[in-house]
Amino acid sequence: MRWCFSDDIDVSVASDREAALTALRRLEPQVVTLDLGLPPDPGGASEGFALLEDILRLAPMTKVIVVTGREDKENAVKAIGMGASDFYQKPLDADILTFVVNRAFRLAELERENRELAGQGNGTSIKGIVAASPEMLAICRTVEKVAPADVTTLITGETGTGKELLARALHDLSHRADKPFAAINCAAIPENLLESELFGFEKGSFTGATQSKKGKIESANGGTLFLDEIGDMPMALQAKLLRFLQERVVDRVGSVKPIPVDVRVVCATHRNVQDLISQGEFREDLYYRISEITLDVPALREREGDALVIAQSLLKTLGKQLDRPNLCFSEDAVQAINAYGWPGNVREMINKVKRAIIMADGKRITADDLVLPADGCEADYQLNLRQVREAAERKAIMQALTTSNFNMAQASRLLGVTRPTLYNLTDKYRIETSTATSGV
Ligand SMILES: Nc1ncnc2c1ncn2[C@@H]1O[C@H](COP(=O)(O)OP(=O)(O)OP(=O)(O)O)[C@@H](O)[C@H]1O
C-alpha cells in the first residue's frame, strides 16, 4: 500500500480493528481501504464488517473501500449495502487501486464542498419555520425540492415538531399555491362523521342530510389535501381513501356518481406506521400509496441548536403580541432550554415561552419562569477530542449570543474573548450573528 501510492497521499497502516480505530480517531482519514479478512477472523469477514460499521458510525463521511477476495462478490455487495463507498477485488493491481482510491478522494472532496455550500445558505426561506440545525435545514431543503413535484408525501414525527407547517410549505411552494389547502384531522372527528366530512354527501343520504354537501377532498380540488393523523383513520375509511388515491374520483355518501378530483395529498402522523401495519391497524397498500416521499421530522431535542433559536424567535414575536417586547433570557434559562428534552416539541415551547413572558418579573426570563428543570448533563458519542471541543465551543457561543440578545460586544465579554475573535468563531461555526432567520 505504501509503495502503491504517490508521495502526496499519506498512508497509515493498521493491522487489526483496534489499531484501525485508533488511527481513525487520530488521523481522521478521508479514505480508508479495508480488507474484510481481519484477525481474529482472517479467513472470514465478520471482523471486517464490524470495523466497517464502527468507521461509518464514528466518521460517516469517510469513504471506505472494501478489499475482498477474487471471487467474493457477495461480501462486496453486502459492504456497499452497509455504506462502503466502493470495493476492490484482490489480487492487488497498483494502477487500478490508485484509480479507485483517487476517485474516493475526489468524491470526499466534492461532498465536503457540497456541505460547505449548503451550510452557507443559512437558515431557511420556508415561511414560519425557524431552524439552524443541519437536520432541520436538510428537511427544509427536501421540502423545497419535493414541493413542485406532485408526489403524495407522508410527514412523520412526534407531536408539535412542525409537521403541519411543513405540509403548508409543500402547498405554498407548489404550482397549486393559489388553489385551496384543505386540512382535516382524522383523529379529531368521530368515525361516523369522518366519511361524510371527507367525501361529502348527497341530500337525503341520511337523517339530517337536508341538502348535498361537498367533502374536504372535493373542496381541495386543484389544491392540496392535508390528512393529519392519518394513522388514526378507521380501517373502513382507509379502503375508501385508497380507492380515491388510485382512481382520483370521490363517491359522495349516498351517491353512485363518481366525481373526478385533482388534488395533491399530503399526510402526517405522529404514530409509527410500520407498527400499525404489523398490528393490523393500517393497510400496507395504503401506506405505499401515501408515502411516495416520506419526511421524518426529528424531535426538537435531536436538533442541535434549534431549541435556542426557536425560543429566541418566539420570545420576540410573542413578546410583541403580549405587549412585553425587549425581554431576554437569563443564562440559567438558556442552559435549561438547551438541556430540556422538549417532549411536546415546539408546541410545548410556545406554551412555556408564553407563560414565561407573562410571569417574568423583570426584563429577564429565568428557568423558573419557563418552569424548566435545572440543567441536565449529556453523554455524547463523539469521534475525538477535537469534535468534543468544537461542539462545546459552538454551544457556549450560541448561549452567550442568546443571553446577550445577539449583542456581539456583550457576548464577547461573556466569553472572555475579543470581538474580532468572536466574529472569527461565528464565521468558523457558521453561526448567524443576527437573531433567527425567519419569523414565527
Ligand atoms: N421550526 C419551527 N419554527 C417555528 N415554529 C414552529 C416550528 N415548528 C413548529 N412550529 C410551531 O409549533 C406549533 C406546532 O407545529 P405543527 O402544528 O406544525 O406541529 P405538528 O407536528 O403538526 O403537531 P401535531 O402532530 O400535534 O399535529 C405551531 O404553532 C407551529 O407554528
Structural notes for this entry:
This protein is an alpha/beta fold and 440 residues long. The chain has 3 domains: 17-119, Response regulator (Rossmann fold), CATH 3.40.50.2300; 134-298, Rossmann fold (3-Layer(aba) Sandwich), CATH 3.40.50.300; 303-428, Helicase, Ruva Protein, domain 3 (Orthogonal Bundle). It contains 17 helices and 12 strands. It has helices spanning 17-27, 46-58, 73-82, 94-120, 134-146, 163-172, 191-199, 216-219, 235-247, 273-278, 284-290, 306-321, 331-339, 345-359, 385-403, 408-415, 419-428; strands spanning 31-35, 63-68, 86-89, 153-156, 181-185, 224-228, 249-250, 259-260, 264-269, 293-296, 328-329, 364-365. The strands form 4 sheets. It has a 5-stranded parallel β-sheet. Strands 1-2-3 form a 3-stranded parallel β-sheet. Helix 1 runs parallel beside helix 2 (46-58), helix 12 crosses helix 14 (345-359) and helix 16 (408-415) packs across helix 17. The protein is flat.
